[in-house]
Design brief:
This protein is 31% helix and 29% strand. By secondary structure, it is of the alpha+beta class.
Amino acid sequence: MRRLLWAAFFALALPVHAQSPFTNSLHTALNSLTNSIDSLQQSVQTRSMTLRVLTYNINALPWDDETGKHERYAQIGVLLDKLRQEDKAPHIITIQEAFHPRSAELIEESNYPYFRLGAPANSDAPLNSGLIILSEFPIESASSIDYEICMGWDCWANKGVLHVRVRVPGLPVPIEIYNTHMNANSGNDPVEAGKIREQQIAQLHEFIGFTRPAGTPAFFAADFNFKPERPEYDVFAAYPGIANAAEFCMSGKCSGTDAPEGVWRKYVDHQFFLPGLTPAIRIVPIHVEQTFDELVGGKPLSDHLGLETHYRLSWQPASPNS
């Protein structure tokens, strides 16, 4: 080995016109070795983690006292707390339709250390936004907007977007989380309701620009009230760089459900993501499933299932020790 290194030294020290075919081959071999070492160093230095995100419309309506359904909220919280104790719980949860005052019992029973609420009721809308975000990790900041346009029964709620910035231990930058609940078709003409959603999407896209520092990772987990066949789905998905996690999993590279296409195509609850660019943080969905299908007292916990996605986040640290 020592002889080879000395030979390489003298060969590289020769003038260009004196170099032989052997020297050229040695140059090529050394360059290849250098590239291999660089690739190995990058591979060794790559950091990664799994982030679990759940979106769940809990159907906590103001009149649930009359039906006894309000007892479900605490039960959902208890289930989440059990998962936390087993280290199987989602790290981030976005909740929709938390209109009933007792939906706060979900927050209390789940024991998540951090949470934020969406916009409260106002003079134009007697119900709050129904939005909650729970987090296992510290929430650095939060902001929200109200949708400027609505239709039908949805106008009773102060619907909009709730955004939080979360500091995930180990990640070089915070992540952005967005929760929303767009206008429903219920009692409305589907075409007209779709046009309302398109205007809400435009407002959401603008809000992303105000709240997301350029190039930081972002996740959108919500009840969008549209399926992929709807025109407004394409309007939302036109945001540069955005991708749907369940659609990605249709490639067969994810665990969880055996039918990710069904999760993507048949439901209005979706998870989208934007990778990090500065620094580069790669985001790859690795697991997608529908959750909270338990029956309590013979009844479902909600008229929606939860949609849980696990993401693999990977990045190169700024220095080997960071």
